[in-house]
Amino acid sequence: MIRVLIADDEDMIRTALAALLRLEDDLDVVAECRDGESALAEAERLRPDVCLLDLEMPGLDGVDTAARILRRVPSRCVIVTRHARPGVLRRALGAGVDGFLPKSRPADDVAAVIREVAAGRRYVDPEIAADALSDERSPLTDRELDVLRAGARGETVAEIAAMLHLSAGTVRNHVSSVLGKLGLASRQQATIHARERGWI
């Protein structure tokens, strides 16, 4: 049996998918979680073979959850998402995720991907993979991305500076450079832009 953990904050989707996967002879859904934190706790407790994680969850998103699970548990992770952005695929693969597919796929396909991943193979939806190959790369430097990451929850310039061991003036210079490169008016817009493209 392949032991599966499912994490999705949408109750109807999570419970319906769990019910459909339980109809498969070789799959055992051992946990249903509403967010990344509970998925991490249950993965550590139950040590499932495959964790099926929604990308868009409150708190820890699916990629962050997968990265933490993979550091602590010998599991495999599959990300499912309604909005498959190419940059997020790159971020997911960088975190060690083994599968990536849109929520528009039927339950039979999800079961097949779980089997592929449990057998040690990777699966990436072909359309998403093709989009990722043609998607733009980040024009921002690593330090500029660090500044956006450090301020992603609305931290002040002083807080970002302390976190990154930089002066407030240097942080302001990086923010100014980011806004100029992206043609945006605020740090918040830049953070959203970078997140949507999977740069941070």
Automatic annotation (TrEMBL):
The modification 4-aspartylphosphate is found at D54. Residues 3-118 form the Response regulatory domain. InterPro entries: CheY-like_superfamily, Sig_transdc_resp-reg_C-effctor, Sig_transdc_resp-reg_receiver, Tscrpt_reg_LuxR_C, WalR-like. One of its GO terms (molecular function) is DNA binding. Pfam families: GerE, Response_reg. Keywords: DNA-binding, Phosphoprotein. PROSITE patterns: HTH_LUXR_1, HTH_LUXR_2, RESPONSE_REGULATORY. Residues 133-198 form the HTH luxR-type domain. GO terms for biological process: phosphorelay signal transduction system; regulation of DNA-templated transcription. This is Two-component system, NarL family, response regulator DesR.
